[in-house]
Design goal:
Strand content of chain B: 25-35%
Largest sheet of chain A: 9 strands, mixed
Radius of gyration of chain B: 21 Å
Oligomer: heterodimer
Number of helices of chain B: 9
Largest sheet of chain B: 7 strands, parallel
Structural class of chain B: alpha/beta
Number of strands of chain A: 13
Number of helices of chain A: 6
Helix content of chain A: 25-40%
Helix content of chain B: 25-40%
Number of strands of chain B: 16
Distance between the termini of chain B: 56 Å
Shape of chain B: globular
Strand order of the largest sheet of chain A: 9-8-7-10-6-1-4-5-11
Chain lengths: ~250, ~325
């Protein structure tokens, strides 16, 4: 079956103001709204659209995390994924471990495409997709703003510093999504009801033969340095004057 | 203890990208650093010569291969991994080039990656931003672990020239995949300074109202010799091309002067500019969050102020 595997991560919601704990041991996440990482939502939307266009027959969504993460998988099923896999693990999952998990899932599910967000908005690592592609020994097309599937191949436009780069990759391949790839759909109530009946498998990390090794010790968390309070000027002339005083314009 | 550091050079086929000189500065902060720059290209001699001049570089290794013409991660990573064996650290810039490539290298080396290094406190201890820069985490690896990292280039000055490191050739014996093929790149060629490294940046937001409105910024930028940037909102609205985007998911920049025009200042945007020396904000909403980080703020109508500025600077 032509299948697309999508990885999602549960993260602190985009709109939550992040605060560092007073003892510098982490950021405050207790009682904070959790959501699907926005880039992963775009990944899922893209997979669903490819399926709707006839480019795939099944969309499988997977995540790694504690049992609570089922909530985000249910949202993904309501958006249009056909089934979900929860790889159960507590504690910190570093990108090499996440990549290893998705390699195992890819070997099991044999997808033609694995789509992931280009980065998670919590740790901002931007690593998992690339690492998966290396471990799986398949092509990668990161930071995608356009994905076109044809027989055995994908043509992917990537947002790079210089502009837009287009690559052609043989399938199966790993794609990571940038913001302008699509706009994820809103989930409607009937879909949420239907999603409750869709299959959701839970399996412990160990059953995939992956060890949750943590290689980076998180020593301390600190708030960023604050900028000095600035001044207000009343018009363009005053602004130019202020810039001249600082030696920034002639 | 000495640290043998391999820096993967970024280039456009003929010129070394300034991000490489910034990686060198990051590496030099590590005590006992012995720095090698690796240049993989189709024709690397000219780029290698530029890298050899960077102060602090003790050796340049160049790899010539027609397959390296387009800097494809899947093609470069196995070559880098093969050459990385004797090194304690492998660093690349946190640009789209390095972000794409380095995790693939890390995975082949079976090690973790430290992304967006903003400070190297020692050979094993680094600081990096998380949550769009709303927290800074200090991470540590066990001694003896190979460190792969990307360097947040806005955090470092470029290492100056004046050096003359020896250049050697290498040809790693690895099979290169053909499953990934370069098709094209559409780069907006411009005579303006490069956004990532410009000393001055004029940046516009959604308040510009249209692509035509956005054009008014270019005149001001040209008066100042500045690069042009944009907020995500302006890019999403189609007023500016994606490569101008500044912020968490765009470019992280550190110019001497950043002029934000009609940008409200979402946290995701601010994370891209907080290392700017001087931030100027022009916005009609005096309560906009951009004013909280601005060194100089001006509340008013940008369509009136921008032409005035142009005249005053002319």
């Amino acid at each position: 079956m032509k299948r697309i595997l999508v990885g999602i991560k549960r993260v602190v919601d985009y709109n939550v103001r992040i605060r560092v704990k007073p003892d510098n041991s982490g950021v405050i996440t207790d009682g904070v709204k959790m959501s699907i990482n926005p880039f992963d939502e775009i990944a899922l939307e893209e997979a669903i659209r490819i399926k709707e266009r006839g480019g795939a027959e099944e969309v499988v969504v997977a995540t790694i995390g504690p049992a609570d993460t089922q909530q985000q998988l249910r949202t993904a099923l309501a958006m249009g994924a056909d089934r979900a896999i929860l790889v159960q693990a507590d504690g910190v999952i570093e990108p090499p471990v996440a990549a290893r998990v998705f390699q195992k899932l890819a070997e099991r599910e044999q997808p033609l495409l694995v789509i992931l967000g280009k980065q998670a908005i919590d740790d901002d690592n931007s690593q998992t997709g690339q690492m998966l592609a290396a471990l799986w020994n398949r092509p990668q097309a990161t930071f995608a703003s356009k994905v076109e599937i044809s027989e055995g191949k994908a043509r992917v436009t990537r947002e790079v510093d210089a502009g837009l780069e287009t690559l052609e990759v043989d399938l199966p391949a790993v794609v990571t999504t940038d913001l302008r790839l699509n706009e994820p759909r809103y989930v409607k109530l009937p879909e949420i009801m239907k999603a409750k009946k869709k299959p959701l498998d839970a399996l412990p990390l160990g059953t995939l033969g992956v060890e949750a090794k943590q290689r980076l010790k998180l020593v301390k968390f600190e708030p960023p340095a604050q900028r000095q309070k600035g001044v207000r000027v009343k018009d363009a002339a005053e602004l130019v004057e202020a810039l001249r005083k600082k030696g920034l314009v002639r | 203890m000495s640290a043998k550091i391999l820096i993967v050079a970024e280039h456009d086929g003929s010129k070394l990208n300034p991000s490489t000189a910034k990686c060198v500065t990051c590496a030099r902060a590590i005590q006992g650093a012995e720095i090698t720059v690796l240049v993989c290209a189709a024709d690397s001699a000219g780029i290698a010569a530029q890298a050899a001049q960077l102060n602090g570089v003790s050796r340049v290794v160049k790899v010539d291969n027609a397959a390296n013409a387009h800097l494809l991660a899947a093609v470069l990573a196995p070559q880098i991994a093969a050459l990385a064996q004797p090194y304690s650290h492998v660093l690349g810039p946190s640009t789209t080039f390095g972000k794409d490539l380095m995790p693939r290298v890390a995975a082949l080396l079976d090690t973790a990656q430290i992304s967006d290094i903003m400070a190297a406190e020692s050979a094993t201890r680094f600081r990096r931003p998380i949550y769009a820069g709303n927290a800074i985490v200090t991470v540590e690896v066990d001694p003896g672990t190979k460190v792969v990292g990307t360097v947040r280039i806005a955090s470092f000055e470029a290492s100056p020239g004046g050096g003359s490191a020896p250049v050697e050739s290498a040809s790693p014996n690895v099979e290169l995949p053909t499953h990934t093929r370069f098709v094209s790149v559409s780069a907006a060629r411009s005579d303006r300074p490069d956004l990532q490294t410009a000393a001055r940046v004029v940046s516009g937001g959604r308040a510009l109202g249209s692509a035509e409105g956005f054009q008014t910024l270019y005149k001001l930028a040209d008066k100042l010799g500045a690069a042009v940037g944009a907020s995500r909102a302006a890019v999403d609205a189609g007023y500016a091309p994606n490569e101008l985007q500044v912020g968490q998911t765009g470019k992280i920049i550190a110019p001497e002067l950043y002029i934000a025009i009609g940008i409200s200042g979402a946290i995701q945007h601010l994370t891209g500019i907080k290392d700017a020396r001087t931030i100027v904000a022009i916005n009609k909403d005096g309560e906009a969050p951009i004013f909280e980080v601005a060194d100089i703020g001006l509340v008013g109508d940008l369509f009136q102020i921008v032409p005035e500025l142009e005249k005053l600077l002319g």
